[in-house]
Specification:
The chain is mostly helical and 384 residues long. It has 15 helices and no strands. The protein has helices spanning 9-22, 27-41, 47-59, 64-106, 111-139, 144-160, 166-179, 198-206, 210-224, 234-245, 251-263, 271-310, 314-342, 346-361, 366-381.
């Protein structure tokens, strides 16, 4: 077994390529795999370095699992270590989601595809709610003030039927006032509150409307910068943008995209690639993928050391707590909005209830559960 000083870029890339290919279960599970493999089994990362990386990933905006992977590579081998972790970790789910998106587009009008997602949709709602609950358990915990922020944002998101970005910032500043009040506000708070051929990539780019690609790139860059606490935080942001603001996808197509992000290996924000492909083909998926993963990479290599220096400052911690509680609230609110489009009859409600019960009581593989839901959709769709 190699020591921490002996591992090279190839070792880092090899590990994260495998994790990106086989790592199912969402951001919390992926973070757990890294702790088990890199700290306990291989000893490439110390427990202190891992916990620091986890703290950084929870403090800075960006998808938790991808940012943690980049940070661990950065800690061991600097800038190129972050690159060696990021690209192999993202590449396998990118390829998988691109292929699935191509099949989805080719057969989108068929009854089979409609039947499959008739069953998958309700289960995805259950998966989103389970992911939000996991995020709440490790961030909000029993703090009633953070629960209040969570509830307010969830309610606002559901009532206005879209994500309100300013709520994240306001919640962050509320967190600062609650946990690190400045001198003028020291009031006692109420206790109740390029792996592919370059020529092919260029050809795909030239065949697509550059204005659409620019819009995709800018939109997903912003999306990658607003996913506080978990990749699932991207769901309300994407719903507002791709469905309501730009009209790129229907509610049904958007939910299908979320499903693909949740049941494929790697980070959940790979949903961006599916959306980009549906909007503008391969080049759209590529631009969306680059856009959504660029902010966490830049934050790690540019601001990671600075965040490490000040991450224990009460104001930074307070802002992070408030923003993360808001993210969880937006996730639940968005799930409620999507549910009104998906849970449309007795069979879909029944699939949701069974899936939610299974997730709550048993440890089950998400792809297996989604596969069973798809089979149920095939059976029930034809009997409507």
């Amino acid at each position: 077994m190699k020591t921490r000083d002996e591992i090279g870029l190839r070792d880092i890339a090899g590990y994260f390529l495998r994790l990106g290919t086989l790592g199912f279960g969402g951001p919390i599970a992926l973070a757990g795999y890294m702790q088990r493999d890199l700290v306990e089994r291989r000893g490439w990362i110390t427990q202190e370095e891992y916990l620091e990386g986890l703290a950084v990933a929870q403090t800075m905006p960006g998808p938790l699992a991808a940012q943690l992977a980049m940070w661990l590579g950065y800690v061991r081998k600097g800038f190129w270590g972050a690159v060696a972790a990021a690209i192999p970790f993202i590449l396998p789910p990118f390829v998988i989601v691109t292929v699935v998106a191509a099949v989805y587009v080719a057969f989108a009008g068929s009854n089979v595809i409609q039947a499959l997602f008739y069953g998958v949709g309700p289960t995805v709602i259950a998966l989103i709610l389970r992911g939000a609950w996991k995020l709440l358990k490790i961030t909000v915990k029993s703090d009633r003030r953070l629960w209040t922020i969570f509830a307010v944002v969830a309610l606002v998101t559901f009532v206005v039927r879209s994500e309100v970005a300013i709520m994240f910032v306001l919640s962050g500043f509320v967190g600062v006032l609650l946990y690190a009040p400045p001198a003028w506000a020291r009031l006692r708070a109420a206790p109740g509150l390029l792996p592919f051929g370059f020529a092919n990539v260029v050809a795909a780019m030239l065949s697509t409307d550059p204005n659409v690609l620019l819009q995709l790139g800018l939109f997903f860059f912003k999306a990658g910068a607003f996913t506080f606490g978990s990749g699932l935080a991207i769901v309300p942001f994407l719903q507002q943008g791709v469905v309501h603001d730009y009209g790129w996808l229907s509610e049904r197509e958007f939910l299908d995209a979320v499903a693909m992000g949740m049941i494929t290996p790697g980070p959940v924000v790979i949903t961006a690639v599916f959306v980009g492909y549906l909007v503008a083909g391969f080049s759209g998926g590529l631009i969306a993928g680059i856009g959504v993963f660029m902010p966490p990479f830049l934050m790690v290599v540019l601001f990671g050391p600075l965040i490490m220096r000040y991450r224990k400052h009460p104001a930074v911690q307070g802002f992070t707590k408030g923003a993360t509680a808001a993210a969880a609230g937006a996730i639940v609110g968005a799930a409620g909005v999507i549910a009104t489009q998906v849970l449309v009859d007795v069979p879909t409600v029944a699939i949701f209830a069974v899936a939610f019960l299974i997730l709550w009581r048993f440890k089950v593989s998400e792809p297996v559960l989604v596969g069973l839901s798809a089979l149920a959709g095939l059976v029930l769709f034809t009997q409507r």
